[in-house]
Amino acid sequence: MENFDINNLVRENVKTMKPYSSARDEFKDFDVAQMIFLDANENPYQSGVNRYPDPQQSSVKAVLAKQRNLQANQILLGNGSDEVLDLLFRAFCEPNVDNVITLPPTYGMYGVLANINAVANREVLLSTDFQPEIDAILDAVDENTKMIFLCSPNNPTGNTFSDESVVTLLQNFKGLVVIDEAYIDFSKKQSWLNELDEYPNLIITQTLSKAYGLAGIRLGICYASSAIIGVLNKIKPPYNVNELTQKRALERLADKEKIQLEIDSIIMQREDLLKVLDEVKFVSKIYPTEANFVLIKVDDASKRYNELIAKGIVIRNRTTQPLCENTLRLTIGTAEENKKLMDALLAIS
């Protein structure tokens, strides 16, 4: 997009504010073992976590930058993707003035965060095959529309959005296009990370909660231009990612071979489940998926949900979501868990 200037989207108070400067921002040389740190009012007795963590998570960013072929200044880390998304609202959306566009059925936190930040959420339903309705989206845009949220692969449907649709939005929308790639590691499609330099209004969020198996440490990732990341760094809390999370993330990121084996196993288990679902009589439709879950349409979602609960298996009933009447979302488990699910589905069929 030509003539894109992020300053035209930043809230006025954010433009003029002076960010908080922590002790660890002012002295950044963490490798000097002989230094005595008396600058942050910390407890001096070693416990492994008695010191504040690196506020910029430099070691984690360095690994991610190398693995993704990006620069560290194109990365922001947060306490889960939800904090990253919340920072986007705080940085770019003026309360009670601006609006965003979301595409239900989709991840529910976009709407929740819009409400928390007093930002209007303009919902434009996906098509019946769960693709963005581009004309309707662009028709919903006005001068106060700051962001469009795309979840691809989409939750709860599992499908990815067409490249043509995404490019059309990136080229024609003057605000920010946020692509949530929480499930991208399970997809055959390439990440939109490769297009960051092409589209200055592109923001991509990812997570270590899914393919990396670190949901418990809460680490979300935002990739964008250095200009956008600079704005977000200005308003983020100083120590938003704790020391234990940073250490565990580094350990896991170093084990690329094991991560890939787990991803491959999940995809293989997903294919096994899809084959069995074809034999389940109460399943009327199996939606295409490129995630670690499958969405199915059944005769009576509440009935089938309760039957599986009785067999000790917890799934997600998505029947209350737009376009998802009588649907169930099945997460892919281990081979043993998957077999129990498949046996239970056949037993109640």
Describe the structure.
With 349 residues, the chain is of the alpha/beta class. The longest helix is centred in the last third of the chain and has 22 residues, at 256-277. Strand 2 (99-102), helix 5 (109-116) and strand 3 form a beta-alpha-beta unit. The protein starts with 11 loop residues before the first helix and ends with a helix. It is built from 12 helices and 11 strands.
Task: Describe how the helices and strands are arranged.
Blueprint (H helix, E strand, L loop, with lengths): L11 H5 L6 H4 L31 H11 L6 E4 L2 H12 L6 E4 L6 H8 L3 E4 L10 H7 L4 E7 L11 H10 L3 E5 L21 E6 L12 E4 L2 H10 L7 H11 L2 H22 L5 E4 L6 E6 L2 H10 L5 E2 L9 E5 L3 H14 L1
Parallel strand pairs: 2-3, 2-4, 4-5, 5-6
Antiparallel strand pairs: 1-7, 6-7, 8-9, 9-11, 10-11
Helix pairs in contact: 3-9, 4-5, 10-12
Q: What's the overall geometry?
A: globular
Query: How many strands, which pairing sense, and closed or not: the largest β-sheet?
Result: 7 strands, mixed
Mean pLDDT level: 96
Question: Architecture of the largest domain, CATH level 2?
Answer: 3-Layer(aba) Sandwich
Q: Would you give the CATH topology of the largest domain?
A: Aspartate Aminotransferase, domain 2
State the end-to-end CA separation. Answer: 52 Å
Structural class by sheet pairing and helices: alpha/beta
- The ordered string of helix (H) and strand (E) elements is HHHEHEHEHEHEEEHHHEEHEEH
Helical segment tally?
12
Strand content: 5-15%
| Uncertain regions spanning at least 5 consecutive residues | none
- Rg, Cα atoms, Å: 22 Å
**CATH C-level label of the largest domain:** Alpha Beta
CATH superfamily of the largest domain: Type I PLP-dependent aspartate aminotransferase-like (Major domain)
Catalytic activity: L-histidinol phosphate + 2-oxoglutarate = 3-(imidazol-4-yl)-2-oxopropyl phosphate + L-glutamate
Family: Belongs to the class-II pyridoxal-phosphate-dependent aminotransferase family. Histidinol-phosphate aminotransferase subfamily.
Pathway: Amino-acid biosynthesis; L-histidine biosynthesis; L-histidine from 5-phospho-alpha-D-ribose 1-diphosphate: step 7/9; Lipid metabolism
GO biological process, one term: L-histidine biosynthetic process
